[in-house]
Amino acid sequence: MRVLAFRHVAFEGLGRIADTLTARGIEFEFADLYAPGSRLTDTVPKTEGYAGLIFLGGPMSVNDPLPWIATELEILRRAIAAGQPVLGICLGAQLIARALGAEVRRNASSEIGWYRVDFTPSVGNVGIFRGLQSEVVFHWHGETFDLPPGAELLASSELCAHQAFRVGERVYGLQFHPEVTPEMIEDWWRQDENCGDVCELTAPLDAWSHTSRMEVLSGVIFGRWCDMLIET
């Protein structure tokens, strides 16, 4: 069993998701359609052979006129229509929302750092967030999205109403970043692509804050997503 992960910059990888996949015996590969020299053709890459697809974050906007964005949107539409499990994180969640016809736009305020999310009653006793109520998690985003048609809102924060959603039983979008490690956060801080966001901050980020809980939480959330793949 294997999954295909779509990266959008080299420094935003799977993080803790890779650990969970490996622990479940699930192989993973990367699709780097953004990279110079990537083979973008008129034919959308086939993804039918994968148990699931993961769309990761990135500093760009879904609204940017980048050719690979249109390609990924088409991949998403086909995968969702076929009932293929999909997980989107930050930019990945925004791509899912746009692929399903929702608007993506600037949020009223950027969320960069550790903020609390509150899970809605819709998480219930099923799905990857089941039983969760309120957690402090890591964020790095300046945009938000409308809920796509038929989506269930699963989490909100004080600064961003739409933090997580589900479409059916197999499509999940997360605006926040449960996959990050402290080392990833410190690396993001140093990246030139993020310098505009960093300039907005009034104090350095504490990359190691909440580490123990994040490790547990990511294992729960991504472990349940992996279990869904295995049970499918």
Which characteristics define this entry?
Rossmann fold; nine-stranded mixed beta sheet; 29% helix; globular
Structure description:
- The chain is of the alpha/beta class and 232 residues long.
- The chain has a single domain, classed as Rossmann fold, CATH 3.40.50.880.
- Helix content is 29%, strand content 26%.
- It has 6 helices and 9 strands.
- The chain has helices at 16-23, 67-81, 91-99, 182-190, 195-200, 211-231; strands at residues 2-6, 27-31, 52-55, 86-89, 104-119, 134-145, 152-157, 164-167, 171-174.
- Strands 2-1-3-4-9-8-7-5-6 form a 9-stranded mixed sheet, with helices on both faces.
- Strand 3, helix 2 and strand 4 (86-89) form a beta-alpha-beta unit.
- Helix 1 packs across helix 6 (211-231) and helix 2 packs across helix 3.
- The chain starts with a strand and ends with a helix.
- The relative contact order is 0.17.
- The model has no long low-confidence stretch (mean pLDDT 93).
Order of helices and strands: EHEEHEHEEEEEHHH
Average pLDDT confidence is 93
Report the sheet with the most strands, covering strand number, pairing sense and barrel closure.
9 strands, mixed
* Distance between the first and last residues' Cα: 11 Å
Q: Could you estimate the helical fraction of the residues in percent?
A: 25-40%
CATH class: Alpha Beta
Shape-level CATH architecture: 3-Layer(aba) Sandwich
Shape: globular
The total of helices stands at: 6
CATH topology term: Rossmann fold
Q: Please, how many domains?
A: 1
Uncertain stretches of 5 or more adjacent residues: none
Counted beta strands: 9
What would you call the structural class? alpha/beta
Instruction: Give the neighbour order of strands across the main sheet.
Output: 2-1-3-4-9-8-7-5-6
Tell me the radius of gyration.
Answer: 16 Å
